[in-house]
Design goal:
two-stranded antiparallel ribbon, 7-stranded mixed beta sheet, 198 residues, alpha+beta, globular
Length: 198
């Protein structure tokens, strides 16, 4: 009996660890963090009411192109965080939408900043090639060990899979998240309501 419980506990722990580093492309409804004040729609996008949001953690460090970035310096803008890896097929599938929407919003003078979090890539060269191939012009923090993802507090809309997309409001609070690859319409549906907030 005790051996069975130990095996079950080990299996649950292993499954949890794999979920964090998984590359998901199933379009199914993701599980949310426990204890959060958010609603997950049929499209897999979770949103938080303006008065129930929590602050995003400070995400800072070296970027893929060797510069430095601190997301707390972007307060006053809507920030779109995209967790990706060059090795991840769903990340490659959604990259063209991030390239297009980020460029169109920048050209329109909107107060939106896009920031990638490149994770689990063993070399910056792979990440750089990915950005060049898909026309990604915004910066990406280089996070090969996934440590930045772990800065998000438990019970918040944290990035539990690769890819993940999180939208922060102008106060630097977590407003929306999805744990699956997005298309252009889904990406805009996450950004536009937050951008329209007064």
């Amino acid at each position: 009996m005790r051996i069975g419980r130990a095996l079950l506990l080990t299996a649950v722990t292993l499954a949890s660890a794999l979920t964090l580093s998984a590359c998901s492309d199933d379009g199914g409804k993701p599980n949310g963090s426990s204890g959060g004040n958010y609603v997950t729609g049929a499209d897999g996008i979770s949103t938080v009411a303006k008065d129930a949001r929590t602050d995003a953690p400070k995400l800072d460090g070296e970027t893929v192109d060797g510069k430095t970035l601190d997301t707390t310096e972007l307060k006053g803008k809507v920030v779109v965080l995209n967790v990706w890896g060059s090795w991840c097929p769903p990340c490659r599938g959604e990259a063209k939408y991030f390239a297009k929407v980020s460029k169109e919003l920048a050209d329109a003078g909107k107060d939106v900043a896009f920031v990638g979090i490149n994770t689990r890539d063993t070399s910056k060269q792979n990440a750089t090639s990915f950005e060049e191939n898909f026309g990604i012009t915004y910066p990406s923090l280089y996070d090969p060990d996934g440590k930045l993802m772990l800065r998000f507090p438990a019970g918040t809309l944290n990035p539990q899979a690769i890819p993940s997309t999180i939208v922060l409001d102008k106060q630097g609070r977590i407003a929306a998240r999805t744990l699956v690859a997005v298309n252009e319409q889904q990406l805009r549906s996450m950004i536009d309501p937050v951008l329209a907030e007064q």
